Amino acid sequence: MASTNTTAAQAAPAPASAPAAPPAHGANLHVATPAGVLIALGIVYGDIGTSPLYTLRAIFARGPIQEEVVLGSVSAIFWTLTLLTTVKYMLLALRADNNGEGGILSLYALLRRRPTKWLYIPAILGASALLADGIITPPISVASAIEGLQILKPDLNTVPIILAIITGLFVFQQFGTAIIGKLFGPVMLVFFSMLAVLGVVQLLHYPAVFKALNPYYAINLVVNVPGGFWLLGAIFLCSTGAEALYADLGHVGRGNIYFSWTFVKVCLILNYFGQAAWLMQHVGQKLAGQNLFYKLMPDWFLLPGIAICTLATIIASQALISGSFTLIIEALRLRFWPKVRISYPTELRGQAYVPSINWLLYVGCVGVVLYFRESGNMEAAFGLAVTLTMLMTTVLLAYYLYYKRVSVLWIGLLVVVYFTIEGSFLVANLRKFPEGGWLSILLASIMLSVMLIWIRGQRLRNELTEFKDLAEYLPMLKELSNDHSVPKYATHLVYLTKSDNPKCVENGVIYSIFMKRPKRADVYYFIHVETTDDPYTTTYTVQHIMPNELVRIDFRLGFRVDHAINIMFRQVVTDLVKNKEVDITSRYESLNKNEIVGDFQFILLNKTLPTRYLLRGLLSTVMNLYERLKHLGVSEQESFGLDNSNVSIENVPLVIPARPELQLVREEVPAK
After folding, report:
1. I need a surface site. Which of 7, 205, 571, 670 has the fewest CB within 10 A?
2. Nearest to 582 by CA among 528, 539, 545
3. How far apart are CA 268 and CA 477, in angstroms?
4. Listing from the earlier edge strand, what are the strands of the sheet with 600-608?
């Protein structure tokens, strides 16, 4: 706390991540506006919108063009976009919003107070796979666009260009996208319009391809065409951005997504069918590594087309990186991820920057580019992880509908249909495991391991934490506060407590106050932070346990709100002073008569655990790994925004283990 008079006028503004809810929040969730639709085009559809650059090319990468495969593939693409994106995500998932927010972790937060305690497993599985997808999507998207230059110059090495674009993209993250973000919508509008026009031009030459709208051709491909089932691994690439679409609900609102998806889907379908029309005119030939998408462009339009595609893939990558930041922040607030540094480069709602994740993604993207070098090789690593995310979302959606008292028959139908569809895609993608699919599984496994270790480590520490009945120590605390023989430690002494029961406090706090250097203060504060299931809750309660001597403050913060405790605590104290509930002036006579505010001191406890005495085997390993992750992350001082406060960090034992009594025998010192 500052050492000047604290008044209501001096209360600090709300932290950057905790302003009022976004425009999509609450009553505006269903509203569609022209500006909102344009923003949705720039934020929501980058991943799924750039999939025409590589989906059909991946299907025909090896064998000759066959009519049954062309019709079956484009039919399967149409019905995948319809059943997965339109029905599951648009009509079902977008309705499972958590106070206006979407995404797998928001959905989990909506369900986590329910009796089913294991639901965190599908939540972290899906989140881990989505983070893995964030490492593979930028390289394959950018590479697919840039490789169009090889049509003009076949011997061009595109790797340096791809790396330069990706490097610039990640370096730019720390500055935010408030300025160029305004261009995202118009650029994507041009891109989708280009998709539609290119498709229509080809369809004019072969309109008969529209017969593939009949699902018979998709079923025939999977059931009757030799090897047709395994093509589902490539067909699935058309829907990889559907999960990101759900996660962006809070940024743009359901109404804007609904309205814009109609336009986007029409453009995608026209382009996919246009590519199929081109293929139908070249039956029997081989693509031989050529980029099918650019075959649709006339020569004079090739350079402008490549430029538009490159901008679109950069926007798609930017949206996915920002989505990864949001996912990590949600995981951190839900205590699924170690505490990491978060900054807010602009005032734009939801614009956060997580340096550790940014550079982790960057290293992963560079590794993918250098290992695979071409987008055609990256396709094998793409898609496998996302199928896991979709399956986990289906599990959580089923429970959401169950708690909404939807008929068990409808829920059973949902599970059967989508487990069949997504399970088939998963099995087909597993065939790509040796060719590169192992990478997405490896990346997802690393992310999952971090989450599991962090969750289990916290649970072990919570199980070992001892709580004391605060009532037993209140008389001692009052005596200490008024014992002038003990040097005053601070005028106002603040502890953070994990006890959600106001009548209890952890043993470490008692140990710090009484058993180490006695900490006499005029007023003690116990602060407890609870993360709520609603994304933007910012409320608090105050209990005067001992008037003007012990105050407990409970903050209830949503899982998307920054825990800037220093700022929030200052605002609460300002309100308490204004209401004359506490007196924060210094108790020293020379300062009190001049109404000087007393000093505020925060005590953060580093609870040490002698694992060798308490834990054995796997539990000891988990705890050791947990401690390593804790040291790799930011300190509690930084994570709670206490960098500019008077903070002391103390080591206290989490629990004092009982040790066996040693039978020591005293020996007499022999006389000389």
Report:
1. 670
2. 545
3. 69
4. 538-546, 550-558, 520-532, 488-496, 600-608, 647-653
